[in-house]
Amino acid sequence: MKKTGTMFLAAVMSTMAFAATPALAQDRERTxxxxxxxxxxxxxxxxxxxxxxxxxxxxxxxxxxxxxxEAEPEGVFDxxxxxxxxxxxxxxxxxxxxxxxQRFDFxxxx
Length: 110
Fold this sequence. Notes:
It contains 3 helices and 5 strands, in the order H-E-H-E-E-H-E-E. The protein has a 3-stranded antiparallel sheet. It is elongated, with a radius of gyration of 14 Å. It has helices spanning about 5-20, 40-45, 80-85; strands at about 30, 50-55, 65-70, 90, 95-105.
């Protein structure tokens, strides 16, 4: 079953609501979100899993220093989540916010 961008975005957005970390409690308002694309190779092989990204939100609201800190299976979804998180933005703030984390789940189920 092929996921459409809208279906996958809904799945990611619901995951993001449940994956909030204490760092998000610092009230940085998210102003732009991009959902990761399901890697074609993983989709073809029926691979599901997750990746957790840790990142810093700069004063101007851009994303910096994004790294995958946990993934299952390792290395499969890394590029997709890093590319997506680079498209995120937050409202400006007086200081950078380090230690933000986001979990992205990849599921082929309906």
